[in-house]
Automatic annotation (TrEMBL):
Residue stretches of biased makeup (Basic and acidic residues): 1-28, 51-68, 144-213
Signal sequence coordinates: none
Species: Falseniella ignava CCUG 37419
Protein name (database record): Uncharacterized protein
Region: Disordered, residue numbers: 1-32, 47-69, 142-213
Length: 213
């Protein structure tokens, strides 16, 4: 009886459980909802959002209220698109604000008029912050001073390619670094020659007995 009761308890043995679980898991992963969830996560990963924004949105997508096909295929992708648009708009408005700040010192700078007109056109057409920074540097080369930039609330953009002039060899004091004379390595002692073993003494020849007369 004990054996029967034990087998009764173990009707669902681990092997069967794992098999059933795998089948169930496979069925769940192939449902339209699971596929929609996976597709949305891929969209989030490929988006232009920051890592923090991506993590927050993926976490939100796992909430039970979004556990339906409509939200996964319509509501959440729509939210993602809005977040990306907001990000673009923010970048655009920051760029426009920076352009506006730059126009005043550029207008007042002592730069040749033809060059100034060219720079104004470039500013108007700049699409990114990086492009605008290059134009600001170009204006500085043409005669705009760093003080005029700072007065307008702008910083001089950092140049990525540092020119070799920045690091002049004269700055380094030669006396600081005395050339160290490399120590001459001691010659390895020549190993003493092993003493040649003495030749074994040749045994004296036995005296030949005198022949009897």
């Amino acid at each position: 009886e004990n054996k029967d009761s034990e087998t009764g308890k173990n009707d669902k043995n681990p092997g069967v459980k794992i098999d059933d679980y795998n089948k169930q898991k496979e069925a769940e992963e192939n449902t339209p909802l699971a596929k929609a969830k996976k597709a949305f996560i891929e969209k989030v990963n490929a988006s232009s959002l920051s890592d923090d924004q991506k993590a927050a949105l993926k976490e939100e997508a796992e909430e039970p209220k979004y556990d339906n096909l409509y939200d996964q295929e319509v509501t959440l992708p729509k939210k993602l698109a809005q977040m990306e648009q907001a990000l673009k708009a923010q970048g655009k408005s920051e760029l426009e604000a920076k352009k506006e700040k730059f126009r005043k010192p550029l207008y007042e700078a002592k730069i040749e008029e033809g060059k100034k007109e060219e720079l104004f056109t470039k500013v108007r057409e700049a699409k990114t912050n990086e492009e605008l920074d290059k134009i600001i540097l170009e204006a500085v080369e043409a005669g705009l001073t760093e003080k005029e930039l700072k007065d307008a609330g702008l910083e001089l953009p950092k140049v990525e390619d540092s020119t070799p002039e920045d690091k002049k060899p004269e700055d380094k004091k030669p006396e600081d670094k005395k050339p160290e004379t490399p120590e001459t390595p001691e010659k390895p002692e020549t190993p003493e020659k092993p003493e040649t073993p003495e030749k074994p003494e040749t045994p004296e020849k036995p005296e030949t007995p005198e022949k009897p007369e």
